[in-house]
Design a protein that fits this description.
226 residues, alpha/beta, five-stranded parallel beta sheet, 5 strands, 12% strand, disordered N terminus, disordered C terminus
Length: 226
């Protein structure tokens, strides 16, 4: 561990396997982290935190209580804590769901403990974890390739990502500006749902090219403004 900020980071652990909790707790404490809670499910974590945030919650991807990963990630994020998902690497759909819900990253359970600790350090600094394991898994998932956009949504994305202001998109399609805005919000929501957020106009251009809605363009150019 290096740096006082990292050494002072607070960590909570949610896993329904006692051996995993014990191993993570020991490694975190050895690395200089303060382990503020360790529970078998998210409701118990919320009770233990009592409305407080910790820097990182290491969350098991699949808990034995039947809870959904999206609900778990969002509940933890609502406390102000960042989420690092501890995952079995072949659970691609659930990994994608966790990232779409706002997890800062996913670390496979097969990773060495040193890699898990390094991942916690990254998330504790407020950075997203871009590790090869989950990125490769998602890339290999064919269902991840495209958001399911309707015809009118594709029309709006095509014109808007091509560079037209939203007002001109609405005029060209013969719809109200507010309606065009609703379509754009819906498009962005659908990309978030499949774990491919597109908050800026450049991001939407990338998605349109990736999904074949627009031909390949210079993605480093373009207007990032809405």
């Amino acid at each position: 561990m290096t740096g006082d900020t990292e050494a002072a980071a607070t960590v909570a652990i949610v896993d329904d396997h006692e051996a995993v909790r014990l191993g993570l707790r020991a490694a975190c404490r050895e690395a200089g982290y303060e382990v503020v809670a360790e529970t078998t499910d998210v409701p118990d974590l919320l009770a233990a935190l009592r409305g407080r945030a910790c820097d990182v919650v290491v969350l098991d991807l699949s808990l034995g209580d039947g809870s959904k990963v999206t609900d778990n990630v969002r509940a933890v994020l609502a406390t102000g804590s960042a989420v690092l998902v501890h995952s079995i690497a072949d659970r691609v759909a659930a990994v994608r769901e966790a990232l779409a819900a706002g997890a800062a990253g996913v670390i496979p359970k097969s990773s060495p403990m040193s890699s898990v600790i390094a991942a916690i350090a990254t998330v504790a600094r407020g950075e997203a974890l871009n590790n090869v394991e989950w990125a490769s898994a998602i890339e290999a998932d064919r269902d991840f390739a495209k958001a399911q956009l309707g015809r009118r949504e594709r029309d709006v994305l095509h014109l808007y990502a091509s560079g037209l202001p939203l007002k001109l998109v609405a005029m060209q399609l013969g719809i109200a500006h507010s309606t065009a805005r609703e379509y754009l919000d819906r498009i962005r929501a659908k990309y978030v749902e499949v774990g491919r957020p597109a908050p800026t106009k450049v991001d939407l251009l990338r998605r349109a090219v990736e999904d074949g809605i627009l031909p390949g363009l210079d993605l480093d150019g373009g207007d990032a403004r809405r």
